[in-house]
Automatic annotation (TrEMBL):
Residues 1-22 form the signal peptide. It comes from Cercophora scortea. Keywords: Signal. It holds the Pfam family Peptidase_A4. The lineage of its organism: Eukaryota, Fungi, Dikarya, Ascomycota, Pezizomycotina. This is Concanavalin A-like lectin/glucanase domain-containing protein.
Length: 290
């Protein structure tokens, strides 16, 4: 599909920026059931054909557009007070901090969904990415980690993968992390400066944990805390948005520089018109559904 020109501009800006950045470096370690995994068995590979998940929410922003989504009655939805915003590709909660008290750490669990071809959509691949990250909404860099389901063609065969990305550097697939529909994942992104962080992803069902220690990333503003299901980008455009079972994020919080905790209540609640709705449940739990 054709990308909005703002997105295309952002993409070329990101590609240019990439050439002048200090080189992102990292070390990686993992455990299986608490036992260290030999480094040779932890496989990272470039995220397939991707500029990755580097588009900020660039969709329509009117309340009228948002009014058509997010009104489905759900059993667990007792509260729906967050300000609604719409996006071309982000669905979920973004909580904003200030430059005088930046985000230090973000945490959450989410359940990797069951994905299927979306009725009436003939664009392939179709995909849906669930992730937790810092920045990318009111700032252009973004550090994020999560999973993606991807349907390459009309056969409807689903591939499930884990990945991380420090935008504008390319996304990386954690090829040795098991990912199945229904598995729960825990993400912790712990910044040690604007340009370094320790990020971890644990498959809580298989007890597989991967921790990556990153240095020399592009400077983060550390002002947005994101819990998102995304319509990701592949190649030169957005993927078709796969249908996915309701995705819950739980124990969601960010920790600020002064030690205070930031939750979901008051977050900007992103919706993708015709693609995904999301709502907060309480200060630590939200869900997104297609
Ligand atoms: C969100 O971040 C932007 C950019 O720093 C800032 O202008 C705005 O005031 C912030 N909003 C809140 C509610 O903190
Ligand atoms: C369709 O996608 C599946 C899963 O990636 C792949 O194994 C298969 O070869 C693809 N089929 C065609 C006809 O491209
Ligand atoms: C985050 O990193 C700091 C060091 O900057 C460390 O003291 C702290 O234990 C880490 N927190 C978690 C939850 O890993
Ligand atoms: C991450 O790497 C830096 C050096 O690049 C090191 O100083 C730091 O101790 C490492 N942190 C962890 C948690 O391994």
């Amino acid at each position: 599909m054709k990308l909005p020109s703002a997105v295309a501009l952002l993409l070329s800006a990101a590609l240019m920026a990439q050439q002048v950045q200090a080189k992102l470096t990292w070390t990686v370690k993992g455990t299986q059931n608490g036992v260290p995994i030999p480094p040779s068995e932890i496989i990272l590979k470039p995220f397939e054909a991707a500029y990755g998940h580097n588009f900020g929410p660039s969709g329509p922003t009117t309340a009228a557009a948002a009014a058509s989504v997010g009104r489905v009655a759900r059993n667990r939805m007792v509260k729906r007070a967050n300000p609604i915003a719409t996006s071309a590709n982000w669905c979920g909660s973004v909580r904003n901090a200030t430059t005088s008290n930046r985000i230090k750490l973000i945490h959450g669990y989410f359940q990797h969904p069951t994905c299927t071809k979306r009725a009436g959509v003939t664009t392939y691949p179709q995909a849906a990415a669930s992730w937790i990250g810092i920045d990318g909404d009111s700032s252009t860099t973004l550090l994020q980690m999560g999973t993606v389901c991807k349907i390459d063609n009309s056969t409807g065969i689903v591939r499930n993968e884990a990945w991380w990305q420090w935008v504008p550097d390319a996304a990386m697939t954690l090829a040795s992390m098991p990912v199945h529909a229904g598995d729960w994942f825990q993400v912790t992104i712990n910044t040690t400066s604007a340009t370094s962080a320790v990020i971890s992803l644990t498959n809580v069902n298989t007890l597989t944990a991967i921790t990556i220690n990153l240095s020399a990333g592009t400077s983060l503003a550390r002002i947005d805390a994101d819990w998102i299901v995304e319509r990701p980008a592949y190649g030169s455009g957005l993927a078709g948005f796969a249908s996915f079972t309701e995705t819950w994020f739980q124990e969601a919080y960010a920790t600020l520089a002064n030690g205070a905790s930031l939750g979901i209540l008051g977050a900007k609640q992103y919706q993708i018109t015709g693609g995904c709705s999301s709502a907060e449940y309480d200060n630590a739990d939200l869900s997104a559904w297609s």
